[in-house]
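Q: I'm teaching a short session on how sequence maps to structure, and I want students to see two examples side by side rather than one. Could you give me a first protein with its sequence written out and its structure tokens following it? Keep the formatting plain so it prints cleanly on a handout.
A: Of course. Example one:
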Amino acid sequence: MIDIYAIGPRHPGTDPAWTTIDIQGTVKQQAIGTTKQLAGLTYNPATRLYYTMAPTDPGGPRLCSLSTGGTLQNVAGVGPRLNGGIAYRGPDNSFYAIANDADGIARFHRITMSGQDNVLFPLAAGVANGLTYVQGGDTFYSLITHDNFTWFYSIKLNGTVTKLFGAGLRVFGGLCHSPSEDHFYFVANQPDGFSRLWTLALNGSVVDRMGLGFRFNHAAISMSPWFGGSMNIKSPLGGERFVSGEKTLLDANILNTTGPSWNSEGITWESDRDGPLGTGTPTVTLSTGTHVISASKERLKRSVNVRVFNDLWALYQAAPAQAEIDRVLGDFVFEWVDGAAGDPTQQWASYPGYPFSQTSANPSRTAVICKLDALRHQRFLQPLPFGTAQTAYEQVRLNSHRIRVSLGTTLNQASGGVINLNRTFALWSNNPSQPTVAAAYIHSLYLFNHESRHNEPGEPGHTSCATAWTGATGIPNGMDAQFDPGSGYARAALYLMWVYKYGRYDPPWIRTEAKNLAAIFKDRFCARPTSTNPLVRALLTELWNVT
């Protein structure tokens, strides 16, 4: 694992090298591709780049950036003699650096990202060989050598400079702070010029850690952005369910004590079933079965389990992970409304928590969540013939924000961004003769799409008419004045038509059920249904025999 980045060594007549240090004992180097002398090294989380100084650049002193791969770029011109270390301070998005001036005084500078350089105050007599910043105490620390002995200093932006304690002899190799360990790393040389990595704590403890090589004496070491961190998988969720063929985004970041410090760049993904899945943030399709998905970078690694099902009905029959429940709960505001007082069957307290049992006849919050989650996974082979969103789930979210599920009322209605649903939506079955047999999810979802339509701007509302266009027996009138763009019944019919004809993950029997359900809307319209969409017109002809 890369724990520390460094610039060095620089033998006489050789170019500086980009060096990675594994504190378990491995040091690797690669050429930076420049003859510039480079001094100081610090990391900016916002840009995910390291920064250093080129104080003797032929074109004038420069602030430069370095990628983790060692690519050097000029950023801006700066003042002279800034060779005593550099540190980035996040609160003001600025660099602070030390100039070892010709009069023997080390001075503290503030440098903006554009290169504006201001001298703040003097530090001490001597030569500075490292600077770092500790966010927790909003304090800078520096190593300053005087009379061949190096002292450890603290620096406050109000100008308070405190000489803390001695660090040792020949400390010429920079300084950095490890937030996860709350101590410092620096480099000191032996008499023969061989450099060693040391740690230093604020209690004065100084410990020799490992050998590095010769002449790491450029005030240039910095912690790797993932040192002391932990891998955090953002997607997929732990235990998340997918349908075979559904796209799965892989995304992660690396966390340390100060929060996110690195995104998915360079993270390698693997499945225990499908093998390597790519690097960074790939989008993949996984084979059917349970997978252990692993994300790794350096020595950091984390895994989550995911489940992939043959179709959407199989997914619906599997218990959702808690993270999936939380995701749906986060997408809407839910209100669980009791019915008549004194009737325990109409009190949500009688059905606590989020149990998953599709053979239960009791109301369940999980039944509501799973139905909505099925809609979230549902995809079609043709674009939806309604709304502006890419999926039916997102179309609902555009205009419906609050879902009220009541155990007492028989009404379903919506307005003002609120959907009111009756007890049936909280049941796995909507068939009283088979109360313990889970019904097809589309029985509830066509209703949900119907009611959500009433929350959309420009929705015409239901309109009763004297005679339905079909003249169906027992139906004296229609409910919607038009089909395209109609009200709730039109939305429910279109949803079922699309499941029947273009459902990508719905199994054949669900699609057949959708076809049968769509037929019940034949007598809901005051006029003969028509549409500007040729795919809709074709389905009207197929399903309702419109000639």
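Q: Perfect. Now a second example for contrast.
A: Example two:
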Amino acid sequence: MANADNKGGSFFNRLVLRNSKEIYKPDTAYQKALLELYEDAYIIINHENKDIVDFNDRLRTMFQFPPELDLKQLQLTRLMMRYLADDSTNKELMMNNIPDLWQGEATFMTHQKDKLYAYIKSNIFYEEATKFQIISIRNITEKKIAEQELKIYKDKVENATKAKARFLSSMSHELRTPLNGIIGTSNLVLMEANLPENIKNHVNILRYSSEHMLGIINDILDFSKIDAGKLELKKHTFYLMACIENTIKSFEAQFQANETTFIFSSMPGLTDIRVISDEVKLSQVFNNLLSNALKFTMGGTVTFTVKIEKLEEHTSTILFDVKDSGIGIPKEKQEEIFQGFAQVHVDELSRKFGGTGLGLSISEKLVAKFGGKLEVESAPGEGARFYFTLPFINAKPKEIKAADENIMGVKCIKDTVGLRILVVEDNAINASILISFLKKWGVRVKEAGNGIQALELIKYHQFDLILMDLEMPEMNGYEAIKKIRETDRVTPVLAFTATLLENMESLISETGFNDYVLKPYRPAELKKKILEYAPHRIVNYV
């Protein structure tokens, strides 16, 4: 089908589609103009000998070819050998034989030694009996550089997040360890009989100041965990009213000391409501709101109202409302109070009332995690009202029974007298304080300074419970629990640690511990934890 048209002009005007019955022969100038509009570069090669028979001008500019370079004198293989980058994707395929129908990426070095990232497409067509291959090259350099920069940025963010987590973990451990000594010693002194009143007052100030510092550390760690999206609710069955009452009791002395009137208002039926939720985090919200109300309401009134909004067979919807008669919050500042480290009052008042400015931010995020929204109504001099409504899943009868019977159907012991407990702790001060509490509670104690010593004692003694630090020399707690669980899958082992990690719950359960006690601890909470797990608590390990 060759004719006079085939003797001159561009090869592009003689394209023949596979399976076409006739050759498409548009005007040469039109065809050339159309192809030059494309951003892609094109090369046409003879499929049999790989000679380059035509190309568009975009190829020359993309590869920065000098004007004198005649590409039609080259084979595709020689072009690839000269300009394909050593680290190119699909290098072997591009060098040897690009398939007829193919698409993929490749990297080139231009004539001026600039890197060119390209997306390649290959197709074939026939002119009479001759097979030709057309290859398009699209410049994706900007996209690839953007992807690389994004990856570098993401890696930097991930590394910064890991560094932050390591720093917070280290800070938690280094600050909590001496605080454990201060708070623990304070509690031990306050347990002494016939303590002079002036000494008791001094020790109470010491304990309060230490616990205030601990609260700041906890706020910073909680804020960091929530901000990183790492906080998860740990759900179990509990009485909602008991959770509220325990929180209120912890504030009684503070309300009296500040001469602030506290009013609690509830509805009939709340006492019987048992839910499945995270009691600790819910208590934290109540604590933050009451603490905030108390701080800004010296000599005034704080009212805590709890109302049943809706009570159904499987769910309960409850309104929680904390209102104070304190200094109030200006309208224009009410959005700021939920931001981290925000202090919305003037500097003098901020210094007077103190705090990190994290309590409300943490509370707002926790309430959102529970499925509600923390809202505020306030005006300067008229106090503030913080309220939210939460949906709860009601506990089923069998879940209630399990909770009442300590989950495993084993009746809880009522006292610690006579229990055999192994304390594994390398810090002499922490060990001394812990052992002092245990002995006051009638516990028989053995002591080990690291995992190796603990394993030796376990060989010759039987224990009802083991309290074990995680960070120890020679053999740490993680290594020790692994060895213990090889032969003993029954004895409860509680991690006793000053390090609060983001994935604490999962890490503890996965490594074989039953639970953990975070230092510093309140003696009553430690005793409650011991009573919960000892003795003869059966645990199924996978």
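Q: What should students look for in example two?
A: Point them to this: The first strand starts at residue 41 and ends at 46. Also worth mentioning: The chain has three domains: 4-139, 232-402, 420-533.
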